[in-house]
Known about the structure:
Layout: E1 32-43, E2 48-61, E3 71-81, H1 90-98, E4 104-109, E5 116-118, E6 121-131, E7 146-154, H2 162-169, E8 173-174, E9 180-181, E10 183-186, E11 195-203, E12 217-226, E13 230-233, H3 239-244
Parallel strand pairs: 3-4
Antiparallel strand pairs: 1-2, 2-3, 4-6, 5-6, 6-7, 7-11, 8-9, 10-13, 11-12
Amino acid sequence: MCSNSSYTLVTPPFSDKTLFPTGFPAGAHPVIISSGYNNDIRMFFLGITALLSASIYVPYTDRLKDGKTPFNYPVQNYIGGVNGQDVMGLVPALVGSAEGTTIFVAEFAPPDDAYAPIDSSPNEFSAEVKQVIVPNPISGPGIVPEAFDFDFVSTKAPLYTDHTFHALLNQPLILTNGQCQRNTYYFNETFTNPTMRSGNVTLFGPTAGSAPKVLAAKYIKQGGMSASAELVGYNAEDCKTASASIDPKALQ
Length: 252
């Protein structure tokens, strides 16, 4: 059963080598941990042109309870302003939460990109997300417990394919208002530049806004991908409609 919800899980197609070329650990289920830099947002009336965001999703969630149609269940979502302007994420977080996607304001490192090389090891990269419970922009640091962090390198022996991430990320998102939403990621642009990764992810918890206890752990040698994508968001809609309307081009 999906954490903090009444939904069960759809059995992923682990035999599909285009999605799981090396198989998947017995008794386990995929979880997507993402962190990214969102540019060209165009919230000019708020003075926002870029934001940082992060999410913990459980794909292959059985929203329709038909045992076959996959959806993404949002465990946690985070958003924050660039260059330490964490509070710039407050209005988007409030709007998103009101529309069915619970979002917490967060502090990101690096403060101006999705990830950054480690000084002592330039071929190794890291990213960190901290939930802002009590901001203190004047004297700092406030109350900002760590939500999760990444530590990864490029790999020539990836656990997954780029198609894996296209397929999982583009499953419709389950909202808190009974509807669903398509956030469609297109990875077929000339600037996509996909790079397969291998590394460690640590989920911290349980505190308000962090990963639930069942997921809180350090995960070693996990598979990932870094890429740029074009995101097209849609209005909330009936979940059957959302699933039936996924653009096949986004899954390529």
